[in-house]
Amino acid sequence: MKINKINIKIACFFVAISAISFISCADDLAELNENPNAIADLPLGLQLTDIQLKAAGAQYEMRRVGLGWASSSVQQLADVNIATNLLPGDKYIDFIDYSYAVFDEYWVNEAKDVIDFVTRSAEDPTAVNYNAIGRIMKVISFHKVTDLYGDIPYSEAGQGYLTNTWFPAYDRQQDIYASMLNELETAAMQLTASAESPGSQDVIYNGDLTKWKKLSYSLMLRLGLRMSKADPSSSETWVKKAIAGGVMTQLDDLAKIEHEEGGVESPIGYSFVVDKFMRLSDTFVGWMQENDDPRLELLSWVESGAPHQGLPNGLDPSTLITDGPAGGDLLDYSQVNQDLVQRDSPSMYITYAEVELMLAEAALRGWYTGDAEVHYNKGVHAAMANWSFYGVDAPTTAEVDAYLAANPFDEANGMEMIGEQYWAATFLNPLEAYSNWRRVEYPVLTPVNYPGNATGGTIARRMKYPLVEFTINAENVNAAIANQGPNTYTTRVWWDKQ
322 lies in a domain? Predict the structure, then answer.
């Protein structure tokens, strides 16, 4: 969006001073904004593959927002840096160029393509299933952006590339949620075995429409619960509709993208390959140690061979020496098991484990007749088994059974237990871990108060809009701020009620 506007100004300048044509600058720029390398009438199957791979994001936004802000804010990761290669969420440092990375990258690399795909597939009566899948992909892409920033361009998003609408209005988050839920419902109803399936060009489910329908309703369950504090009545309605429609029922129903080294690489894996400073948070490691969690041996790797030891959040190189529980050598602190963060490690959108834990919450709320404990136990089993998709040996069924026997579900503390397990189940799916934590605030985390932090010593509730928006789209971004609140880390998005 901003790149093309800069190009417009430059092009208009040179057209004006050259005075070699009477053709208007606007007409010239219409041609300049056409990609000469674009393929006319790109086959829908190829475009589907493209938007699915792009939805996983790139190392740029994953390192800056996913790991940099989200994972460290919810104290899954920690670091000691205060200048470069840092995790801003560890100390709530205002690295604004980190904060806006998802917003900035999304409009350039995702929005225009997924919207174009949905539009083109809707015009083709034989592409019913392509259109349904496109609608689901649109929700996957947009909900991560609105959950981070709140009000965002939605109804006019991506239109700069498609209709020359360069200054998109910001939609209210509650309106975006209503639209996304309707998109999911429409998609689920559209999917049909009587129309063409994308087959192998669908790199998530290989054309399995039954799994796409489960994904649609599982995302509906996620978004429905996300509204539980902001709009309990609508939340309950959509949760019930999702469960009735049919959510994920087994481990391999999960939605993920496989990566390959030298091809479309894992944004998380690549981030860990190039950044050796990140450590597991002492909060996360301590929680696993306290509960004798079999995931500890799987997730934690200490390079020096010392015992598992998480790094406390909020330390810098000086305080690491004085206050670090394992001293001042980072090699004595737990890193993420390197086998889990390779360039070919998968990207997870939503897993069966998350769905079972959400069903447990729905049952606990009285919105579902299922047994909360049964779904909780299934969720924990699935969360541990899910690590097998990373090519490692997951905890055995016997180990998980022993863990659950030692830490049985307690309905009186059910919301806290479900929240903690969801937090663990979404490790390496940082944006979801961050969003769900803001909604339920479990596990209970102790914020840090590093000198000069940008939040007053509280965990950030959202990311900040890019500064460039206040230059090129000032009227619309200021309208969003008037509706939502100041462009700060402590302003809560619509669904994030106290």
Answer: no
Could you tell me if residue 334 is inside a domain? no
How many whole angstroms separate alpha carbon 260 and alpha carbon 137? 21
> Distance of CA 415 to CAs 51, 308, 441, Å?
36, 28, 10
Q: Which two tokens stand for residue 109?
A: 């690399």
User: Is residue 420 one of the residues assigned to a domain?
Assistant: yes
User: Do the Cβ atoms of 150 and 488 come closer than 8 Å?
Assistant: no
Q: How far apart are CA 287 and CA 407, in angstroms?
A: 12
Helix spans in 191-266 (H): 209-226, 232-245
| Mean pLDDT, the chain, whole residue set | 91
Q: Answer yes or no: pTM beyond 0.85.
A: yes
- Domain of residue 111 covers 44-267+343-484
Phi-psi domain of 200 (left: phi exceeds 0; alpha: psi -120 through 50; beta: other): alpha
Task: Assess whether 62 and 27 both reside in one domain.
Answer: no
Task: For 221-277, write each residue's pLDDT tens digit.
Answer: 999 999 999 999 999 999 999 999 999 999 999 999 999 999 999 999 999 988 889
User: CA–CA separation, 150 vs 484, rounded Å?
Assistant: 8
Overall domain count for the chain? 2
Q: Of 169, 166, 174, 167, which Cα lies nearest the Cα of 154?
A: 169
Q: How far apart are CA 156 and CA 115, in angstroms?
A: 10
Nearest partner of 420 among 407, 401, 431, judged by Cα = 407
Helix axes 112-122, 128-149, angle to 10 degrees: 150
In a domain, 464, yes or no: yes
CA dihedral (377, 445, 106, 498) in degrees, to 10, reads: 90
Which residues face 77 on adjacent strands?
Answer: 280
**Residue 341, φ and ψ in degrees, nearest 5:** -130, 60
Dist CA 336 CA 480 (whole Å):
38
> Which amino acid is present at 121?
S
Phi and psi torsions of 483, nearest 5°: -80, -45
Q: What is the CATH number of the domain that holds 246?
A: 1.25.40.390
